[in-house]
Amino acid sequence: MAYAYWKSGKHHEKAVFDLFFRKNPFQGEFTIFAGLEEVLTFLRNFSYSESDIEYLRVTMADTVEDEFFEYLSSISTTDVTLYAVDEGKVVFPRVPLMILEGPLIVVQLLETTLLNLVNYASLIATNAARYRMAAGRKIQLLEFGLRRAQGPDGGLSASKYAYIGGFDGTSNVLAGKLYNIPVKGTHAHSYISSYSSLAELQIETLQHKESGEVMNLKDRSLVWRELLSRELNILQSEASDGELAAYISFAIAFPTGFVALVDTYDVLKVYQGSVGQDILPRENNNNNNNNYYYYLSGLLNFCAVAMGLNDLGYRALGIRIDSGDLAYLSCVARTTFVTVAEKFNVEWLEHVQIVASNDINEETIISLNEQGHKIDCFGIGTHLVTCQRQPALGCVFKLVEINGEAKIKLSQDVEKVTCPGKKTVYRLYGEDGHALIDLMHRTQEAAPECGSRVLCRHPFQESKRAYVSPAQVESLHKLYWDEGKIQQKLPELTEIRDRVSSSLQTLRQDHKRNLNPTPYKVGVTDDLYNFLHDLWLQNAPIGELF
Amino acid sequence: MAYAYWKSGKHHEKAVFDLFFRKNPFQGEFTIFAGLEEVLTFLRNFSYSESDIEYLRVTMADTVEDEFFEYLSSISTTDVTLYAVDEGKVVFPRVPLMILEGPLIVVQLLETTLLNLVNYASLIATNAARYRMAAGRKIQLLEFGLRRAQGPDGGLSASKYAYIGGFDGTSNVLAGKLYNIPVKGTHAHSYISSYSSLAELQIETLQHKESGEVMNLKDRSLVWRELLSRELNILQSEASDGELAAYISFAIAFPTGFVALVDTYDVLKVYQGSVGQDILPRENNNNNNNNYYYYLSGLLNFCAVAMGLNDLGYRALGIRIDSGDLAYLSCVARTTFVTVAEKFNVEWLEHVQIVASNDINEETIISLNEQGHKIDCFGIGTHLVTCQRQPALGCVFKLVEINGEAKIKLSQDVEKVTCPGKKTVYRLYGEDGHALIDLMHRTQEAAPECGSRVLCRHPFQESKRAYVSPAQVESLHKLYWDEGKIQQKLPELTEIRDRVSSSLQTLRQDHKRNLNPTPYKVGVTDDLYNFLHDLWLQNAPIGELF
């Protein structure tokens, strides 16, 4: 295509392209724009290397002139101008996320990479922001997805944009190193199963946190297990010695960071009425005559080591549950902690963190909230990073103007008709600070003024019109790339992360809710409406029958 | 976790891990194993750089000893051994794709990367192989997915593994350059809409292919459009001059490679009985009294330029349809080509390629086959590269042996119980060359012999047993990494691609069909069955109630 542009002498023509999407992902009504910094880095580095040219020479037809390859090796983005929405802002269908102006051939060559960089970044950031809204502000969210991500770079991008979208950390250490994202993780089941017995413990001791006195954590943990077993009416035979050994070794390695995975060995024990303490009866138990009780056997070992650590002046951090009924099990765990904390006067134990993982998605979080749970932290992998519910955002890159002449792409599907010409977009806010509408203007039109009413039209439905008097008017795009240079100070990742949060706050709750959210309005001025429809008629040939 | 292993002196213990999945993707009953070469490259390069160590020093707790970081900077995969299935082979749940042996800490540190490299590669290769089976051998399949892929590297991996799975080419030029995959593509809608009129054509001429005589393609195309318009009873006013100009310029650039996108301007015209030639009446037309006819307006322009090229000794390659009813439109297009070819005695035009794109997936192809179509080539993007139907393969990495002692991971969900110990796996084939079962052995057991019956057991269902007399026995794993070196000659991409095809041929059709395929059998020997269940009982503590 680039060669055909060059061959027909069109490569110097000045083109304007809009990059936008047509539909918000995840059946929602908003999207977080992300990927801008990577786009700018790409623009800065864009060129064809000698080996690229050599490959193209070999691959393309023999008739392609040397001059084309010379031209190709000389191109850069110096003459390209990029207007973009700030990274991390909430955006909507049909509004350009980026507007690119420049020589037709250069801007066209950027298309696929720009789409690639924006599509996945925005999708992940949006997905993460939705998880954050579902979980609420107080819950810690960790990205655990690298092993299931679509390629190594898919995993890195996921960590970065999940953080921007509102996650608190990642288990991807390279992402931590490259992007300065907090790294968090726990051990895997294999750590537990690598121990068979207490005899395997090569180190049993640890220095007391304050006194420095060397004390035996294994002996203390065993004493506590005996005591707790009686207190909680759980048989010690239920708790694996290998698991206890693994916990003790992990606590010795990380006395201030001890988090235990509690479901390696047959996770759930069921007790009948006469046995075990009534920890928390299952409310929806079908058979109310039999009192069944449930218990996580790893909890006993965890509590034993946590109390052992307590003797040495340390506080355990918490547990991770990776299977079963997370709502119920987290309640069981919390009740256990409260029971032990009260009985032995160890107030902090009441509040240790309960981390839940295992195929969690937005719906799981919403469902857990409805059931009630005691989870403090979710570790989320596959569904977050692959965006299982919708693994691609459908951004497109459409020519809207060439040599000053507006262009329209028609389609039988009205949703696919493009909005022609270079446009300016304003976000209009109401008195209460909420965004009302994104209004697309032709560039020559005056900006809307605060307090003055402006006619907003639906781009395709003639009768849908409304006057809006904005309390605040925001120009959505900034000049980000011009004359071969980045034109704005680029924010830190944490600033983008804050922008996601504050931008979402400008959005009314009904646009953000999970079920049947209200579409946010995107409109055009009267001038642009008429321009669009005139051009449509000009370009749609008159047929015989409709 | 690595630090805890080191701290507790376990890092030198010799561990065996299995990498496997539990469920085939896409509701199918087979998976293509891919990613091995990248795994081997990773093993060869595995080490911690100075900056990695520096980052870890800053990030980890102050209590972590210098000796640990020294140890970490010294580790390599020299002591690691990797057995793997050949890349491109068909594989099944629970059978290890790779078996890793080595120092516990090293093998554990490899886990996430290995899973990442195998999961997506195998998923894409399997997806591509399924598309290939749905499309049949004769249809060309092109990967067009970069713009929607999950990150730049996700796009590259997609191109590579789609090719392995049976695709014929990619539109990703970098993938072409790096992996020597054929690159194929067509122009985009923006190429068409960059032209408004014939006056914009800066070059109108082209040399005759044989005689070298410079001739005017524009004039000839216009003459042909006039003629064809009458022949096909289509008004010339229906065909955009901008579109024609774009086609002519593209044909001049690529006289031997002219493929035209035919749906930029209002794609489908509907004619009533009295107007237009009966190109192909829609069979399922609800109202048979009115004869409605359908026509792609871009077809007229394409035929005009194709006939113009013919005058100059060239042959157009074909068209691309990117919207609408692909089955029906492809039939309309083919009928048009046949009509024109016969009328003007241009036999080759009958057979030009019809490329279809627009959100195609496996189900679309199957549905198009059922409806009947004349498509020769599919360009497939989003669904292929993101594996929309199931965007992650769930490979896991489980410890099965440590210091010679077999390990089992228990779970309430029987499907999640691991198969303990280091194993040897054989694929048993029947007389007709079809694979019958993958049989897992304990390593000390003798291999099955051709012609001798061997007892195969279901790993968990006691009563499911069968004798099999294999006509052929294949040991599934080869030693791929040992003593810090790759131990096998690695195949070219095309060899792996051939292996996918031949490996799938060993599979009975009922395992491969799209709807309700029969599960392929994976079994264990009697010895392994007993070993597994004894270990299970040893590790599951006796509770109070089941």
Brief digest:
2 copies of one chain form a homodimer. In chain A, 37% of the residues lie in helices and 19% in strands.
User: Residue-averaged pLDDT of chain A, rounded?
Assistant: 91
Number of helices of chain A: 17
For the largest interface, the chains and their residue counts are: A-B, 117 and 117 residues
Give the total of beta strands of chain A.
Answer: 25
**Could you give me the name of the CATH homologous superfamily of the largest domain in chain A?**
nicotinate phosphoribosyltransferase
Supply the CATH class of the largest domain in chain A: Alpha Beta
Provide the helix percentage of chain A. 25-40%
| Largest sheet: spatial strand order of chain A | 17-16-1-5-3-23-24
Beta content of chain A comes to 15-25%
Q: Could you list the spans of chain A in which at least 5 consecutive residues all have pLDDT below 50? A: 272-293
Number of domains of chain A: 2
Query: Multimeric state of these chains?
Result: homodimer
CATH architectural arrangement of the largest domain in chain A: Alpha-Beta Barrel
Using only CA atoms, what is the Rg of chain A?
30 Å
CA-based shape of chain A: elongated
Largest β-sheet summary of chain A: 7 strands, antiparallel
The CATH topology of the largest domain in chain A turns out to be nicotinate phosphoribosyltransferase
Give the N-to-C terminal Cα separation of chain A.
34 Å
Q: Report the structural category of chain A.
A: alpha/beta
